[in-house]
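Re: How this chain folds, sequence and tokenised backbone to follow
How to read it: Take the token row as a discrete description of the fold.
Start of record: The labelled sequence and token lines come straight after this line.
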Amino acid sequence: MFILYLLLALFVLLAMVTIHEFGHYCAGKLLHFKINEFSIGFGKSLYSRTSKKTGEVFSIRLVPLGGYCAFDGEDGEDPNKQSDGAFTKMAPWKRLIVLFCGPFFNILSAVIFSIVLLCTTGYDIPKVYQVDSIPVVTAITTTAGETTNFADSDKIVEISQAGIGHNSMLVDAEYSSPSYLSYEIKKFAEDNNTQDTNYLIKYYRGGEYYSANIAVEFKINTAIKADDVIWKVNGTTIDFANDNTFANLIKKAQGDSVTLTVKRDGQYKDVVVNLFDYGVNSNTKVVGITSTAYKFTLGESLARCVPFTFGLAYKVLESLWLLVSGQLGLSAVGGPITTITTIATYTQSNFASFFILLPLIAVNLGVFNLLPIPALDGSKMVFTTIEWIRGKPINPKIENAIHNIGFLILMGLVVIADLYHLFFV
């Protein structure tokens, strides 16, 4: 089954590159560049067709890891043998547009993929699935004559995957004292009604197990309801693009309550909800809800897709900076093989991840190609801009040598990154 996901991932990567090259192709056609070939894939030709009108060759090649749009004169052919529409004979501003449109088409496709993601899977806006009860310790009595590390009014919050509201709950907590305490609530309220109930706990200290009875009162935010869609926290709109995620806004909140702007039954309203301590002796606050991702309407997606895409672009640039500054290691870098296996792995584990990865990959390809790295579109744009300012081109042999060396270095890094992931990660 994993093979099918690998093939899907391969198709996605090939599609992203094809979109990129199609951007170059469309701009070149509009500006009357002479195009020799548009190819999907590299290597031996499996299929080709030549346009009788323009002489352009459309081909599908053996190696599905890329593609290209070959402009006449782009590779430094003898100017005397170039047509009037050759790449180097066109005005610099036209070449800049052609070079830019490859990454632009990737970013444009990311916007479209973002609309699909927001409509089908949802992302950053939480929709309340259930309101959870938060157990608060009101009294403690030990049966072994020992004093526990609990104190009255300590909050107990589920840390395991089970989640609050289930019949059993296991919490591990480490304290400033040398002792390590673990406790297990043997039974748990099956409803969310506020009540006082005694629960048996066990804790481990000094090689011995002890037990205690705790009186627990269950707190619940009655102001918020299941199916509420949370749009704002204290007046700030939840927005992934600005790192204003729901979790981050709750962390930044001051005091013991927050005002949430929710969409309920098609109407927007403000509700005040309490914040509860997460865990014993913790400064982290929680609202006490289990949520799912809200699926946007088409209109909401159209309004949000552009800032969402630019938020992804910012994350890509941030990651590149962390990589360059040495804050991220080689494990954060991957070539085509790593990219394909990552897509396949995430998609197999959760197919919804597929829709999340599409705009991310598209943005990544677009942003990366705009960087002034030799052999990439960004570097070629730099050389073209210099030519435009100087009024004459840089020596073609020097420019081609820089691009060729840059390409070899880039391919070497890609191979090293893939080998590292294959054998060491």
